[in-house]
Model the fold of this input.
Amino acid sequence: MKHPASLSLISLGLAASATAIDLTPQIVTLVVGDYAVRRACFADGDKKYAVTVDSETELTGSGGTALFNFSKFPRAVMRLAPSPLKPQIVFAGETLERYRATAATLLLQGAEQPVLEKEDADVLPVNQWTSRRFTFAYNFLGAPMRESVTFLNLDRKQQIVMQTRARQADFALISARGDDILRRWHDFRPEEATEGN
Done:
């Protein structure tokens, strides 16, 4: 027989996981005057958040992960996924090494000789978010690449990972586009939407 306290902890754990943000994109269409605008939404319990995706960005995803492909740039992609770490692990002191090590494990499989080039704090200071970004250089199939891994605290309970990668020559532009998508993160009002796909 399970102890009542154990059952309570299990229930709390299930409730917490049930309210975690689902980064699997849901595409809806907002009607603004005579125009229809596509928005990608992410569900967080009863709430939804939206981002704007332009016609040169293909958004797919499943299993709680979103993938933004930048169609005019080969190998350029941004990925949003749940973080393996938690917001309670602060971006300071000894725990920074834990973030560095975790970031390195998230790089593109097959990345050759990755080098951590720089770290930045609070790269997306919107919505009271806090973050830490690690930018790596490496080669992949002979091509010089850059990839940033950003641990982003949405609130006190939820942390996601934003990964942006591109060929070295395209990275600054792709990184700016990825950041711009996240800066447009906002509450979604369902009454503005029509059926969309």
Observations:
- Residues 68 and 169 are 19 Å apart (CA to CA).
- Confidence is low (pLDDT under 50) at residues 1-18.
